[in-house]
Design a protein that fits this description.
The structure is a single chain. By secondary structure, the chain is α/β, with parallel strands linked by helices. Helix content is 34%, strand content 17%. It is built from twelve helices and 16 strands. An eleven-stranded mixed beta sheet has the order 1-8-2-3-7-4-6-5-9-10-11, with helices on both faces. Strands 14-13-15-12-16 form a five-stranded parallel beta sheet, with helices on both faces. Helix 7 links the parallel strand 10 and strand 11. The N and C termini lie far apart (54 Å).
Length: 350
């Protein structure tokens, strides 16, 4: 199969819409990351997503819509859901709602709820309107790899696997949407994203965060949301998170990087702008300012991809406080590292 990469001209969006309606796959930009879309009503098309991504079929997908009218064929909408839509749609919020029978169980991994969102990216909105069917779309990467925030990385993973990629430029948010469960008592964030806990609580009151956000799923624990698996978003190299007091972390990063290099590894650090100069001899990859975590969110997946581009196999990273969008960053970094972390003071003491 030849994979075309096309700009978002109207004729290209119409061609992409025809592909989706006919049961084929199309990758397209959203404000969060690039999605790999299929007609959500077409079971065979949905199954082809899992094949293209090498993705386990017990991992649910998110259904994307361009207008609320489409929800009548997808899910049951509660008053709480309406409140959330009024506040955050279109935008990076996915809501779990009771599934209607028109949505195949392959979309929901057999769960009784379906995850739905309305993207704000103008290219995504135009494509969804043109095809006028709900589109199931996980991130457009091979399973386990960092989600793509540019068409270049979609092509890297999907060349020869799908017929078309719509190139809409780089994504603005850089991390996948917040996934919110509103069907089991207190609203609960299953996957943090650009819509933060504080933002949700201004609309709903108290909101919980699932314990699995900053830890691996336990044995037998069901993945209720995309992005909950133990190791996800990972580059080829081993990522280690370094925690502790700021200057101790800088010292520990330097020591870990130097020791790894002495042991024959191609090593580097992921650090904040404020520390890049201190770590200039450690092949620093800049995560943005420590005071602007949205910068880290925007560049994280691109940074993880660039590590593979240059073959880094030992990667030591600073961390953010898990609050605001920092919670989403640490959710992704934790899974990229397989939750492998060390304390800076322990490294410096050895």
């Amino acid at each position: 199969m030849k994979t075309q990469v096309l700009g978002p001209a109207q004729e290209n969006l119409q061609a992409a819409a025809e592909l989706l309606r006919s049961g084929q796959l199309v990758a397209f930009p959203t404000e969060t990351v690039y999605g790999l879309g299929a007609n959500a009503f077409d079971k065979d098309a949905v199954l082809s997503i899992f094949a293209a991504k090498d993705r386990p079929a017990d991992n649910p997908l998110i259904v994307h819509v361009w207008c609320r009218e489409q929800l009548k064929d997808i899910c049951e909408v509660s008053e709480t859901a309406e409140k959330l839509m009024d506040a955050f749609w279109p935008g990076p919020l996915t809501i779990l709602m009771p599934r209607k029978e028109s949505i195949p169980l392959e979309v929901t991994a057999g769960l009784p709820t379906v995850a739905v969102r309305m993207p704000s990216h103008p290219v995504a909105a135009a494509l969804l309107k043109a095809c006028n069917v709900p589109v199931a779309a996980p991130s457009a990467n091979r399973s386990g790899k960092p989600s793509p925030t540019s068409a270049r990385y979609v092509y890297q993973d999907m060349d020869g696997r799908i017929p078309m990629i719509i190139d809409g430029g780089d994504c603005d948010v850089g991390l996948e949407s917040t996934v919110l469960d509103i069907g089991h008592g207190k609203p609960c964030i299953l996957r943090p994203g650009g819509v933060t806990r504080d933002m949700l609580e201004k609309v709903l009151g108290e909101v919980d965060v699932a314990g699995s956000v900053l830890r691996p799923l336990q044995q037998g624990e069901v993945a209720l949301s995309p992005g909950m698996r133990y190791k996800h978003y990972a580059p080829n190299g081993q990522v280690v998170l370094v925690e502790g007091e700021e200057q101790q972390v800088v010292g520990a990063l330097r020591r870990l990087c130097e020791e790894a290099a002495q042991n024959g590894h191609k090593s580097c650090v992921m650090c904040f702008t404020e520390h890049a100069e201190q770590l200039a001899d450690c092949h620093p990859f800049d995560l943005g300012s420590i005071h602007r975590p949205e910068e880290t969110a925007r560049c994280l997946f691109d940074t993880l991809r660039r590590l593979d581009d240059v073959g880094m196999d030992a990667i030591f990273s600073e961390v953010l406080p898990p609050e605001g969008i920092g919670l989403a960053v640490m959710n992704r970094l934790g899974r990229a590292a397989g939750f492998h972390s060390v304390q800076a003071e322990d490294i410096l003491r050895d």
